[in-house]
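Human: Here is a favour to ask of a fellow structure person. Comparing notes only helps if you start from a blank page. I am asking you to supply a protein in sequence and structure-token form. Write it directly below this note and I will take it from there.

Assistant:
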Amino acid sequence: MAYKITSLAGDGIGPEIMASGIKILEAIAAKYNHTFEIESHPFGGAGIDATGDPIPPETLKACQDADAILLGAIGGPKWDKAPKRPEDGLLALRKALGLFANIRPIQVPSSITHLSPLKKEIVENTDFVVVRELTGGLYFGEPKYWDDVAAVDSLTYSRVEIERIIEKAFEIASTRNKKVTSVDK
């Protein structure tokens, strides 16, 4: 099979991790007769340094045209006071691609329960999925500002944003233990 992959190595340790990830993909391609067309583009702080934008238009277009996106680490102290921050690129990418659900399965195999800082009997058989909304709330709420004296960070969601993340959670729960717990910050 052939896949078009956009590589966004990002900043800091991102390029090093991405290089290793691409080596793994090359090994998979060789072993299973896949073809990966990997295109690298600047993103995050690297995008700001290259073009002044954390997600340059060419990078966004490559992401929209790809079958998959590999994303490394972004950000760092260099851009802490920058007018555009590396994280702005991540939020714009989520919005542009409709990536509203962060799905994180969590399982603790019995072989590693002794490594947990929690008691073995508490973590043993842990098996749940966190479904987190990514395109509303504090990320995109307006108004938003801060200075040395005050800060405003609005937490706003539309009905559509809430409905689609709840639907995703129930869709996942229907294939598991059929339980959903809603947690808010």
